[in-house]
Queue: 2 jobs
Job 1
Amino acid sequence: MIGHMRILQVSLCIAVAMAGCQREERQLRLDPPVAAALDEIALMPNGISGAPPEVFFALGRPYETNAYNLSQGKRLYSWFGCKACHADGQGGAGPAFLDGWWNYGPEIVSIVASIRDGRPHGMPAFRDKMTTEQIWQLAGYVQTIGAYSVKTAAPGRNDDKHVRPAENRGPAALLFDEGPRPLHSDQGPRP
Amino acid sequence: MGFLTTVDHKIIARRYIITSFVFLALGGVLALLMRLQLAQPEARVLSPDRYNQIFTMHGANMMFLFAVPVMEAMGVYLVPLMVGTRNIAFPRLNAFSYWIFLAGGALLWIAFALDMAPDVGWFAYVPLSGPQYGAGKRADIWAQMITFTEIAALAVAVEIVVTVLKQRAPGMSLDRIPLFVWSMLVTSFVVIMAMPAIVFLSTSLILDRLVGTHFFNPAEGGDVLLWQHLFWFFGHPEVYIIFLPAVGMVSSIVETFARRPVFGYLAMVMALIATGMLAFGLWVHHMFATGLPRLSESFFTASSMAIAIPAGIQVFCWLATLWDGAPLFRTPLLFVIGFIVTFVIGGLTGVMAASVPFDTQVHDTYFVVAHFHYVLIGGAVFPLLGGIYYWFPKITGRMMSETLGKWAFWLIFVGFNLTFFPMHILGLAGMPRRIYTYQPDMPWYGLNMFVSISSLVLVAGFFVFFVDAIRSVRAGVSAAENPWDAPTLEWATASPPPSYNFAQIPVVNGLNPLWDQPACLMVASGLRTDRRELIVSTVAAANPQVPGGLTGKFDLAILGCSRDHRDADRVDLHAVGGRLGIRSSCSRIDRLVLAQGNARG
Amino acid sequence: MLALTAVLMLAGCTGWQSAIDVQGAAAISIKQLIFLFVAVCSVVWAMVMAVLIRALWRGREERGRPADLDPQTERRMTRAVIAATAVTVVIVTVFTTASFFTTRALSLASHDDLTIKVRGQQWWWSVEYLSPPERRLQTANEIHIPVGQNVRLQLEGADVIHSFWVPNLAGKQDLIPGRPNTLTIRAERPGVYRGQCAEFCGLQHAHMAFLVIAEEPAAFERWVNSQQQSATDPSDADVIAGQQVFLSRPCAACHAIRGTSATGTTGPDLTHVGGRKYIAAGLLETTRGSLAAWIADPQTLKPGNNMPMVPLSADELRSVSAYLASLK
């Protein structure tokens, strides 16, 4: 019994430690070969969904679960002008993220592909404007805005005007729109 | 379970002291790592991320986990003994405060081990620590650690205030309280008034970060500078929370080793109180570069400089005491001499930094780093180490080694000055604080290398101190009840004291009871011995007021006794008569109550 | 220790980022104040030490019991302590007054000849000349000022709090988001003065330096005119290739080069980057080699800064660094 408790405690500690490291680690410099490998995403033929490269899992899905990468993504969101079309997730000329509906599915690879290669109806390609690492960071952040269940490492509010609850409070969960409102009738999931 | 549930102030204080010194050693290791990184330009020993965590940890650890707790712990140990009572007031709260302090410390250090320690400085200025720029949980951990440790500090402060005001031995009127107790009383009031500001602050930061409030968001009507005002409204008194107990220790040590009472008792008490009050009027001198109106800055220059006056009075009184006394150069006094030498430098550079124009050049440079290490190490750690040498026999029943003590003192004193004095010059030569490295073309290389090497001497001194302390616990020479022939009540009981402190509560009729009544100490009798019963006394005159165990009937006697009053040969002095609960009969302690009646004691 | 102080003072306080080697109006009057304070305080410390040493090692007769005090000695010591306290009060008053008048002298500057907006960002300085209107221009990390003229700096924090500090010229002033500050500087002699961020601002607080270059008015005018020009069109083949790389790769998304299609505002304006003395906020002297090293691996040279590592071939790197170095 005591042995079991000991094992449980030790494994709990290790789990916490691992989680802590993954979540809080700050990888400031991405090795160029790793960056190149991250560029190799496998997409389904219709451009919706697919599989991230192996290295993404080997790194521990850093762009979905790491707080530093998510907050860097948030800075990129404003630096690269995403707000011009998507506002703070409410949408505008481009689709909203906060309503919980994803035209190309919620997987991070779809979002990476959308940013990197662009999409029909006005989404430009950022391939030549951002590095691979930046695209992944931004994709992770965009996924966070529209996440239905809040990510544990979601960023807090910005020092800006308050237009919606911050990402760590799950605005998409609050603002989830039951009815389908596809901007582009030829794309996206249907109920 | 007894280990967990004890409420004896001495056991809890011992734990507090040991834990704080462990944190001191850990914080010292962090300082060494920083010196290793800064010894050379563009060194790559630490990454900027790790360096930022380390300097934040060093500051937060030394302030919140070492300096404040260890000073309060010395108070928790000594105040009940010095005022002649059985335990601190609210003993369970006292135990609680230790455990919550430990939780705060563990939180910070476990986070550090997991590479998620706060990296925003011990002051955690917003917006850097705010939701937008403080990614991850790091600033939250800082804020939560603050909340834990400050609640612990508040709890202890309340206990000490009540103990000093209501549990003093009969006869210990306000003008007979030992100076260390006065300093702890003033400190505790400062804690009670300063800590709520930081608890509010850490809470509002967590709210901003996690719940999306806008205390510090300028776009929504919040204010970034609000943080600095509130932080320094706490942060400056914090310095005095650390410094005032040290001043009390200096007074205790000076009077014992100069072999005469401290000169100018009333002036000393007034200086303590003045320092405690002025402490709240000078927080803005940490903000002279923020662009506040010039006139108000000048007001804070005046008030910051004014605090040099009470500090000066205390130094002058100690010098007078040493002048007239017959100094015995034992280790505790050496540390006090080291304190005077270094603290005066720290105080004078403080006066310099209080001037607005001067401060705009030295603020946030190594000049300020040098200044506050002179004040905190010179002004607080030196007296603390002296205090450890002084009270070690009382706490453990064994003496520390004089030889090792002198080695420790000289290594620490020389190492400290060689390490920190050159930092004044580095600051004037333009080296800012909190930089993880500097470029090779800056003229700081030589002095930084010198400082890093000197810090090894300082560390060697602390190492000798720790070796001496650990060795002496087991193998030190056994200490008598009062090995230094000191005048205050903590020396009137066994070393180490029994759990009930005094077999009978002493009665005092002077400022230095063991010198005033050298052969015999008066004690009160009539207290129950089958349970923990103590005397609650009036605030000013310390007349017995109500029975402490709240047992209803309670009678007192004053008995003369031999010095070893545990085996006292009881002799009735004179009878006045009356129950303790009736105050009218005991207006003056000299004519105090005696009762035969149904004394159960 | 006083001798040590003097030696170290002399050794440590020359240099281009020093509060003692002063060349600006404000810094000169602060230096006088510093010397006054240090001199008085040294004397005070020496006197306290003299009394301490005398108190510890003076000859004395045996004392009686510890608690027995001699009333005459007590009276003498009371007088001494009161006198010492009175002296303290006098010194503190003198210091406060001196400090007050220095503050007044600093803040009573006359008219301003030039207004420059300085924005502190993680971890570089954006510099915009606002007025007079004929001198409007945009640059980064390097501020040129004419000697002997009052220059008004509008200080703004773009993200977190920074602090603007050129010790040779003036004391520091914070750049606080939501609370603009101003600081007036005036250089009395031409020279290159280094400044550095003095408020902890995150990962690269250590590498957030800038230069203030004080020039004779004629040289300053020449500099203004050259800065107001757009970047010259390249003629050399290597440089033309470099421009193509710059405009087609992520560089142009964050940096602006006037006269080209690069209009990014996230990073520093690079229109005349080759003419600045340092790149990356005081990190490296500007040479073609250092530009190439910086572009090749910014995260090793300045870990955590916001410039990403853009994968470039060796040829691309060579030509883009040639292009940037040519932007004088």
Note: Strands of chain B lie at 523-525, 535-537, 544-547, 557-560, 571-572.
Job 2
Amino acid sequence: MIRHLLSIRDLDPDGIEKILATAASLADVGSRQVKKYPTLRGRTIVNLFYESSTRTRLSFELAAKRLSADVLNFSASGSSVEKGESLKDTAQTIEAMGVDCIVVRHKSSGAPLRLSKWVSANVINAGDGMHEHPTQALLDLYTMRQHFPSFAGLRVAIVGDVRHSRVARSDVLALQMLGAEVTLVGPPTLMPPNASSWGVELTAEIEEVLPKIDVVYVLRIQLERMEAGFLPSLSEYSRLWGLDSRRAALLKDDALIMHPGPMNRGVEVSAEAAELPRSVITDQVANGIATRMALLYLMLGGEHSVEASASA
Amino acid sequence: MDARDVTRALGRISHEIVERNHGASDIVLVGVLTRGVHLAQRLASRIKEIEGHEVPVGSIDIGLYRDDIGLREPSPLAPMSVPDIDGKTVVLVDDVLYTGRSTRAALDALIDVGRPRTVQLAVLVDRGHRELPIRADYVGKNVPTARHEEVRVHLGEVDGEDVVTLGEESPKEAVR
Amino acid sequence: MRDVLLKGGRVVDPAAGRDEVADVLLRASRVAGIAPEISSDDADVVDCRGLVVAPGFVDLHTHLREPGREDAETVETGSRAAALGGYTAVCAMANTDPVADNAGIVEQVAAFGRRAGLVDVYPVGAITVGLKGERLAEMGEMATSSARVRFFSDDGRCVQNAALMRRAMEYARTFDAIIANHAEEGDLAAGGQMNEGDVSSILGLPGIPAEAEELIVARDLALARLTGARLHVPHVSTAGTVALIRAAKAAGASISAEVTPHHLCLTEDLIRTYDPVYKVAPPLRTKADVEALRDALLDGTIDCVATDHAPHTQDDKEREWDAAPCGMVGLETALGVVCAEAGLDLTRLVERMSTAPARIRGLSGHGGPLNEGAPANITVFDPEAAWTIDAATMATRSRNTPFVGRELKGKVHHTIYGGRFTVREGRITNGQG
């Protein structure tokens, strides 16, 4: 298995399938009497979060704890980071404490990759700037897999602020790797520059796309985008690209509605659309734990690859 | 062992299980993935022939409970399904008993999902070289081996035919 | 001081129209003779067979960081780096702390240069006070100071205000000074971290479109036409800028332009590593831009190579991409990169590294011609030598260069500044020459 997960590009289709299959086997741990496996006893995992993110941090924390790893949480506020300690110094400090894995969330694109050069611990990217959020993509794939047997030919539309979205970058890479067809939908100001090089369809016409797809993946719209001049107003965005129940009715019967959270209800997705039976938004959250457990097991479980000891 | 040897051994073990437990009413068979599960299913159908009722069969993957995590490439996990084992007599079923470490892991996995009244161990082959204080209650065949040798159990469900072979260990093969 | 006899080298001196094997005799601080065969009994004879003897290189774009960031570079360490790179003159950019926007600072920088005594250090004056782009710095005071500033730039910052830039150009004409503007339209480039394109799109780094540079260059070319000023376009990085300059020159504009060694060979693809050693301003662009820049340097659309030597400490550079400052050091690797990458014949190479920049800045003592009586500012180098630079032996105080460990071609053997060896056999002489 890989040493670091910094980008979906670190994985190949087999690696992704291995993670998804393992996640499926781990999914029931939450319903067991003992909600825990002893697998990573004695391993230490640090959640190094330079950006606040309750759900991703909790998901990683729970995943690690269910595998019996020790978990430390290190958030940038109130720490030495605020006193000007550099990422490299912080990384080496954590490393010196004998940590096996660093889960890092950072506002700067590429920070996890830089970090991985300075430490011997495994590094997992929990979201870096506008670059990638690979574990989100894995849990998204897992969620889609629960409803569709194959990704080949699966049609997925990603709607909204793709330009600023690390989730979209990871999802597009992962879906393309597995043979899905991706369409990006939204105003041109929120499409990535040179998106033509992504190998995806691009359109501003959401209502033409919705009837043709298997999954509509709605991205969060942030207020700052309007302030920075990418959008005239949130209400105009909502009117032109928001997923409301009228638009959701255009979807095929078995199509899924997904969102990485947290949602701005009434902006990119209406409350009614988010609560339709075909919405799997809460499943995504639940699936995050099993997916991250699978990743931790596969990454940390095999690190010190000594000659396999015979045992039966 | 050839296919008929395997069938005969499983038949005998089925009888021994029923005999020792005075019937099959409280028995749950739990196979250790992958081949242990198929063996458990075969035992269950033989017990049904003997006793006339279904014995629940479960499966466990010991990947998360191994004591060599970090020493070898982790294998992808298979789904586990263990029926209610609280207060039951669980017969763990595995293909080969060797160091005992897999059985230790299986016991831990089992205890995390319930509290059986008793746990017994059935194996098709016991090849010796125990490293832990574990012994089998039911053994298909005792096969004396050297450490460098490898016992391979092939089952029709997985490998197309039933046969147990003894050969030189292939270094990369991870025996689960 | 003993005479020096450079024996048997190939003298390449575009200003004199010379490219021939000849001996060069130096006496005191000047060239005392050039002839096919000179013999001397008491001269210090230096075997230059197989080497090129050329006028010393001139860098129009050097950041020496002093005053203010002596932890990254000083005039002295930067001068040593320049000498090792074959330079005999450098233009020290104004973005120091405090900014070189007044006579006091430029005189101080010039004095540091004289004290180091390894190259001529010509301070560049800021166009605007504090580089803020708000009001003109005292260009006249700087021009008439003992530093005799004839080159103004807010380098590192772009003068965004067109009216202010016009005034600066008009004002600079008074002193026949050249004026350079770091071309980057501020609103288009706001928040930008690298070239905008396929790679930035994938990396999730905000892009700076080529047009941010081209808009300002087009504007400044128009203002130069309006004012008659001598515009110099620094660190050209895009094919579009090349086209603008080519068109302006064809129309007879008296403008000049430079390109850095790194823009002649590195592309945005390297940023996939997120290693800030590749973070420069203007940003590394595409392969097509690199090719356009090479063509432009070859055909003279771009007049010269300038290093944009920009030292930064390891602490400053070893950070997250968006937190790291722009720039790489270049004085010691410029020749090696240009010989390896630019595809110039020797005459053009010397012209672009020495003759042209000396002419643009108006330095009569540099860039040749190396005729009898000319100041002995000379570089002796092997244009074919393959070598790699060792970080441990670099003279600059900083190490922010991606060229360590990369095979370079073209190595400086000796640098002679004012008749004395500043570098001999590839080593700084510490004034012992």
Note: Chain B touches chain A at residues 61, 63-65, 68-74, 76-80, 94-99, 101-102, 108, 112-114, 127, 147, 150-151, 169, 171-172, 174-176 (CB under 8 Å).
